[in-house]
UniProtKB/TrEMBL annotation:
The protein's name: Transposase IS200 like
GO biological process, one term: DNA transposition
Species of the source: Sinomicrobium oceani
Record InterPro entries: Transposase_17_sf
One of the record's GO molecular function terms: DNA binding
C-alpha cells in the first residue's frame, strides 16, 4: 500500500488538469528527493536515490531523479455517488491487500475519520496551481 497514491483534486475553470498534475508531481518529487538527501537518519537513502536515478535514465524528460510514474488513470468525479464509490475503493485497498480486516484499521488511511475516529492528518494538504 505504500507504493501508490490516490490524489483527488479539482482544477479551476479553464485550467487543464494535466498541467496541475504535472506541477504537483514536479513539486512533490523535488521535495521528497531533497528530504531523503537531507535526512541523516534515512537508512535507505543510497538505495532510494539510486533507484530514482536508474528510473530517470530510462526517461527522456527527467533530469536526475524519477520519483513519479508517467502514467496515471484519471477518473472524473462528477457526482456524489461516483465520489463515494471511489472513496470506498480507496479505503478498501488495504483490506483487499490483506493488510487489515477493516479499512479504519489501516494507519495511513482517512477511513478512520470516516468511521468517526481521528486519523493521522490534522489538515487537508492543498497544492495551489499558479500557472
Amino acid at each position: 500500500m505504500t507504493n501508490h497514491v490516490h490524489l483527488v483534486f479539482r482544477s479551476v475553470k479553464g485550467q487543464h488538469p494535466a498541467l496541475l498534475l504535472g506541477d504537483f508531481k514536479r513539486f512533490t518529487s523535488k521535495a521528497v528527493v531533497k528530504a531523503i538527501q537531507n535526512n541523516p537518519r534515512e537508512s535507505r537513502k543510497e538505495f532510494l536515490l539510486e533507484q530514482f536515478k536508474k528510473a530517470a535514465e530510462k526517461s527522456s524528460n527527467v533530469d536526475s531523479h524519477q520519483f513519479w510514474r508517467h502514467d496515471n488513470k484519471p477518473i472524473a468525479l462528477w457526482s456524489n455517488k461516483v465520489i463515494q464509490e471511489k472513496v470506498s475503493y480507496i479505503h478498501n485497498n488495504p483490506v483487499e491487500a490483506g493488510l487489515v480486516s477493516k479499512p479504519q484499521d489501516y494507519l495511513y488511511s482517512s477511513a478512520t475519520d470516516y468511521a468517526g475516529g481521528k486519523g493521522l492528518l490534522d489538515h487537508i494538504i492543498v497544492f495551489q496551481y499558479f500557472g
